[in-house]
Each structure stands twice: as structure tokens, then as C-alpha cells.
Amino acid sequence: MTSREQIVESIRDLYAARARGDVDACMEKFSSDACFVWAGSPQHCPVAHEANGASAVKAAFKGMSDAYEVLSYEHRDFIVEGERAAVLTDLTIRFTPTGETFSTQFYDLWTFRNGEVASFVQFGDTALAAGHAAQLGLQGGAP
């Protein structure tokens, strides 16, 4: 069983790696069969999706790192119960294609197994993400 301290440390390490744009360091914490979900409706927000397995999760993180630079972040709340955690985080982010800088929040749900991330579900501003996706030529629609 992963301890509360290990979970909090892992999540802090993952956010620090993400802020550096270090996708490989992020992936060191994920299990080979991990799942990442950007919660939302893919019909309305093309970035909303599910990635299953380490290679798909890595590709999703690479895409996010290419599109968004994390300028600063602050964890506002950690709730850890067993091997699950809920984390509310304030972020300042730059949308790299346009240079637009904005503040937002993410609410993340994490599940750990044997010290590794088994599942990561991220809730963010899907309207904002859909607008950025449109600027990149991505469109929502039925899969």
C-alpha cells in the first residue's frame, strides 16, 4: 500500500516535472498500464480523451507540454484516502502557439498502485481548452 506521504511526494514531483516540461520524469511515476483521462465531452472539446497504457499517456503529456507552458502552480488542497488522492491546483499557464497567458484551476483524481500512478483523471476548463484546440485546427465531433 502506498502511504499518504509517498502519494503527496509523487504528485508534487509530477507537477514539478510537468512545470519543467520533463515528460520522461513524469512517466517514471506511472505504471505500464496507467490510464490518463482529460475529463469532458470529446464532441465539444477535442482535447477531452482517455489514454490507456504508458505510451499513450506519454503522447498525451507530450502534446500538453508542447501546447502549454506551466509558469507557476500552487496546490490548494490535498485529500488522500488509501491509495487515492484528490488535488486542487491553481495554475498560471502560457498557451505557446499564441503566447496567451492565463490563470486556471485543475482538479485531479489520482489512483496509486504499488507506489505507481495507475490512474490520473484531470478536470480543467474545457471551454478554454476547446478554444485553444480550435486555434490549432482541432475540432470536436463524434469519434
TrEMBL record:
Highest taxon of source: Bacteria
* Parts forming coiled coils: none
User: Which residue numbers delimit the SnoaL-like domain?
Assistant: 11-119
Query: What is the protein name stated in its UniProt record?
Result: SnoaL-like domain-containing protein
